[in-house]
Amino acid sequence: MKNLLITGLLLLFVSLSKAQTFNTFYAEVVANISESNLLSDLTTFEKFGVKTVGSPALTHTENWISHRYESMGYTDVVLQPFTYRKGSSNNIIVTKTGTIYPYTFLIIDAHYDTINGPGTNDNGTGTVLLLEMARLLKDVETEYSIKFIHFSGEEDGLIGSKFYVKNTVVPENMDIKLVFNIDEVGGVSGLTNDTVVCEQDLGAPTFNNAASSAATESLAILMGLYSTLNTQISKTYGSDYMPFENNGEIITGLYEKNISPVNHSANDNLENMDVGYFYEVVRGAIGAAMEFAVAYETSSLVEQKYYERILKIYPDPSNSYLNIEFDEPLEDEVEFKLMDRLGKEIYTKTISEQNFRFATDFIASDTYEAVFKMGNKRFVKTVVVE
Ligand SMILES: [Zn+2]
């Protein structure tokens, strides 16, 4: 969507001086993006034609997206139907379950409907970016769950995302860590496209604005770490994150800096965008998503056995206290969390000594997961508290 004047937008240049640090594992995953996949997907998207709600072109696109997830091996691919004056359409919702916080979600979304033209930039770019991200993250473990959502009806007034918030987020009281919206990130052919806009919430309600601002500053830093792009911070408007924002969720988004003069027209095609710029946006967005979802490296069997050998947790079952003991001195601090069945933290501690003990008599009798975070690795052990 996005028909708006730049005037009055808050434009801030962000310095690359804050919290997020470069993660070599994330960079390895980012390095695996396939430019030929991206180009071929954009071409396919373009060839479907004008994807207005009610058109066969949109249905073909929907089928293509769903099949792509299924062929990647995703099993939780859900179509959410809705109907309005234009006709019926579906949001496509794909869930990847997190290992530590399965009931807390990073939502990464892009609309796949278009208006007046093939919409290769608006929003073939967001659509294809999600597909490539999902491909690369398929077998990467993340602490938080991710929902990849392809909304429809965006061009008619955010119909699909409003429907999702009203009929899923609100009734299910979904715990959303962050909404990360991608809409029109293809740049403009013939111009120098070296900057991506990271969008923060400046609107009402305002209680969630500081968190959006922090997430957006992180996003800008992460885009800088994993792509060659410069970043600029501006405000959120006119896309699928807005219904989430109205519900009080924390939102952020990516948008092109040079704004396409041909969006919402028959000329919104590959020829009029800058594919090299788009590849960089994909790189940055994947690095950012890994940070937001807290991706980590799966331990090898040898590493698992090593942790099992050096790490003792006793007594099991625990009655009034738990001892945690490492057989070897720690090289680095270990982050420890005791998680309940609902993915809620019961106890957390940064461990720097080889032995420590904590009282468990304040904890309800149940089965818990003891999670140890060591750099990019995790070790998880089930413990019973009586
Ligand atoms: Zn759009």
TrEMBL record:
The GO annotation for biological process reads: proteolysis
Superkingdom of source: Bacteria
Molecular function (Gene Ontology), one example? metalloexopeptidase activity
Which positions make up the signal peptide?
Answer: 1-19
Keywords, sorted A to Z: Hydrolase, Signal
Domain Peptidase M28 as annotated: residue spans: 91-277
Instruction: Write down what this protein is called.
Output: M20/M25/M40 family metallo-hydrolase
Organism source for this protein? Answer: Subsaximicrobium wynnwilliamsii
